[in-house]
Amino acid sequence: MGLKDAAVNIAVKEGIKYLRKDFDNNSIALIEKGKKKYADNELYLRAFNRLEEGLKRPGNKWADFIKSLIVDTDPEVLEKLVKPIISTFFKSYEKRVESIEKYDCNVPWAILMDITTACNLKCTGCWASEYDKTKQLTYDDICKIIREGKELGTYAYLYTGGEPLMRKKDLIRICEENPDCLFLSFTNGTLCDDAFADDVRRVGNLLLAFSIEGSEETTDARRGKGTYKAVIDAMARLKSRGVPFGTSLCCTKENTDVIASDEYADFLVSQGVVFAWYFLYVPAAYGAGSELMADARQRELLYDQIRKWRFKETKPLFTIDFFNDSEYVGGCIAGGKQYFHISANGDCEPCVFVHYSNVNIKEKSLLEALRSPLFMAYRARQPFSDNMLRPCPVMDNPGALKKMLYDTNAKSTALEGAESYDVLFNKTVDVAKIWKETADRMAQEHGFLTKRLRSIDLYSDVEAKRLRDFKEFE
């Protein structure tokens, strides 16, 4: 560790002590110091000003949320989270802009990896349940991805599977070796024992998002008897250690009304959940049917509820609506625009729900993957719709995905069995047509057709190159 790093660590440690001593007053004082130090950096100033405005607003539950994070999180965990948060949310932006301009391709904010196909559960509708359990990204594969990613400006790495906690030792080792990166693992929670909870607390830069389907009945019905209790126990282990954690909620026709309810949000908060990912069920697995897909009413309900929790400040819970939040990021984030997916076999896929590829990371570099035909096809066509409530080429504009796959001759990467482009198209096209009616009405009501929040500057060149050479439902 150099003198500069040591000085930063001391400053961070003292800053955390200062905040925990008197958060209400000292938080504003630190923000003012930050504004003076970074007076010439527009990105940092914007973040400081928004944070200050929120903390000063009377009755703001987000201020309580931030205060709770500072006061209730273990101070050593907080210290270790500062560096990766700075890398992920500030340093990353500047480096990615440089890389995008240099290489003329998408460069992601985050990379999602299936580090193993092995899993101790067999969940309904999950493609991993049918995988060959021996496939994995080796430790060296993962290190290569992270090394090349950091060179381009990517500091956030997410794990799926299989069950990532089947690789506990590697997860912890990689965190130790990359303290400037933020890691998140989606997990069924059943393998998060006391020893692993201690390791998560020790490294500090690994967050867990527990998969849960709603009630004990719905969770165990999809994931197996006893899974719900195991998740609740794992949450309690992390909470008792002062380690922040979240949930991953798959919205289906059977559970959306429950997990989008005020009562369920209150339940998550009561368990100590800090953040919650909401995903729509996508029938991407080989042989998976469309019967579990949430309908248009449920998707609109999810949109309305999450925005109520955020903007009316009724729930101190950080929520991410993977599909409906596209208005904030300029549409579809796949294909490396904000993220992409690498399978356990090494195949570089534009999205975790699109099991097709031109490139394998075991044979090619990360940059070659981002410049591959399918990824460049995504870049040329993003956003896929002017309506930010219809961002997805799988769920909302299936004709777009079908054309890109045909044009780039992408190969199926599904380990459980290949499906043609037309099969996936036929699973989602009817639901997409119905959602278009609802989404277009919502766009008119909320003004999204004329007022879109886009990724300012980062992708300013995409508009001029955008292709709309597809038909949404053909």
Lateral strand order in the biggest sheet: 7-6-5-4-3-2-1-8-9
The main pleated sheet reads as: 9 strands, mixed
What Rg is obtained from the alpha carbons, in whole angstroms? 22 Å
Please work out how many helical segments DSSP would assign.
18
Q: Structural class per helix/strand content?
A: alpha/beta
Shape: globular
Beta content comes to 5-15%
Identify low-pLDDT runs. Answer: 450-459
User: What is the residue-averaged pLDDT?
Assistant: 89
- Number of beta-strand segments: 11
Portion of residues within helices: 40-55%
Amino-to-carboxy terminus distance: 57 Å
The oligomerization state is single chain
Question: What is the string of helix and strand elements?
Answer: HHHHHEHEHEHEHHEHHEHEEEEHHHEHH
In brief:
By secondary structure, the chain is an alpha/beta fold. Helix content is 49%, strand content 10%.
Structure overview:
The protein is α/β, with parallel strands linked by helices and 474 residues long. The chain is built from 18 helices and eleven strands. The strands form two sheets. It has a nine-stranded mixed sheet. Strands 10-11 form a two-stranded antiparallel sheet. Strand 3 (182-187), helix 8 and strand 4 (206-211) form a beta-alpha-beta unit. Helix 2 packs antiparallel against helix 3 (42-56), helix 7 runs parallel beside helix 8 and helix 13 (296-311) crosses helix 17. The protein is globular, with a radius of gyration of 22 Å. Residues 450-459 have low confidence and may be disordered.
